[in-house]
Specification:
Blueprint lengths: L2 H33 L2 H18 L6 H7 L5 H32 L4 H9 L1 H7 L2 H9 L3 H24 L5 H21 L10 H6 L1 H28 L2 H35 L4 H28 L1 H8 L6 H19 L3 H6 L3 H22 L3 H28 L4 H30 L4 H23 L1 H11 L1
Helix pairs in contact: 1-8, 1-12, 2-5, 3-7, 4-5, 4-6, 6-9, 7-9, 8-9, 11-12, 11-17, 12-13, 12-15, 13-15, 13-19, 13-21, 14-20, 15-18, 17-18, 19-20, 20-21
Family: Belongs to the polysaccharide synthase family.
Keywords: Cell membrane, Membrane, Transmembrane, Transmembrane helix
Membrane topology: Multi-pass membrane protein
Amino acid sequence: MSFKNNVISGFKWSSISQIVRQGMQFLTLIILARLLSPSDFGVLGIALIITNFIAIFKDLGTSAVIIHKKDISNSLKNTIFYFNCSFGLLATLVLFLIAPVISQIYTEQKLLLILRVLSCNFTISSFSTIHKALLEKELKFNQLAKVEIIATVISSTVSVVLALLGYGVWSLVYQILIITTITTVLLWCNTQWKPNFSFNLGELREVREYSLSLTGYTIFNFFIRNADDFLIGKVLGTQALGYYTLAYRLMLHPLVSISTVIARVMFPVLSKIQEDNARFRFAYLRVVGIIALITFPIIMTISIIAEPLILTFFGEEWKPVISLLLIFTPTAMIQSITTTVGIIYQAKGRTDLMLQWGIFAGILIIFSFVFGLRWGINGVAVAYSFTSFFILFYPSIAIPFKLIDLSIFRLIEILWRSFISSIFMSAIISKIEFFLSHNLPTGWALAILVPLGIFIYLLTSCLINRQQLLAVINLAR
């Protein structure tokens, strides 16, 4: 299979995996929500806060090293494998030992055993970290997708059966362990490489700066991503945090899902052509154009139908979310583009620059959260959007673009058609929404506006953005 076909296949299989897994997880959540109590989900939620934080350190960026490095020796693979296994065992031991302290902090006795059982997850997953990275490096996303789908289906089915048998919160705990175990076993079965005892610590030191800078960025980004929730919950209360969280997830969830698929495939692709800036620029701009074509209309549509969307699916008590969705609109459009620059830093081997920019931008974002608190959740959202758009947007793309000699004007040339098509669609839909909101129930208005918006956007794109539209259609075939 040619390089181009491998890339197209990677996008297809990654998309299939993402859709099937999210669909299965959503269906499982609906079933388990009827079988388990809210306290069961609450206890697991606390446990996941701890395990998700420790998971940041799971491989210290060594998976990215495997994908980024063009020529990787077998001894380095072995060294990284044993390093990951050792670190997985260490993470298991640490969580096992601190579990009693965490249980006492939250005054929840169940947490002790749950955390200790979940600690095994780090050891299990560490045995297949490099195998997953090797499949991604070789663009074998069809095998990865099959592994992920099988593991998700089996673990979800078992969790529902256990819930029916009365296992309570343990049905959720075992679901996590089962999906990790099955994934590890299947990754070993689908990867030709197997470890031996030839390793070299000197080679690991050579990639230390790359991996540690990436880990540092991930850790810092974790705190930035949770700073607004912490501040709002602490200062404005849990109700305000609930409104803010729902708005953030509704507006940014489509963006995150799409960018996850894109970044997963493009990182190994761009790493293979990291020394050819011309091909790098072409591939990157092609992908950014596709992202904009898909995300821009989704973001604009959510902002236009915010009122019927919230009132229909969530009810009157969630009305404050409507204004937040409108405020988050420009931020979401910006982030749909800026989230892609991380793969430039990683593919070009400049995670040190990525960390430096992340620290600077993160500090400004935290200041914006603190500044906006005095005006409530809308104030936080406005301050965040203002900082993202007027202060951080230009440097956030200009710095990585210098690494590939890419002009911002070239980016604008790629994006303007999707932007104009989205604006035109939203202008028409907003007029129709105003009329329907005074004459029809919100549910009926929503049922009319969404398909109509899709039709108008596709029609406009056919007229002014045909090339990118055809690229997406060909990708989906």
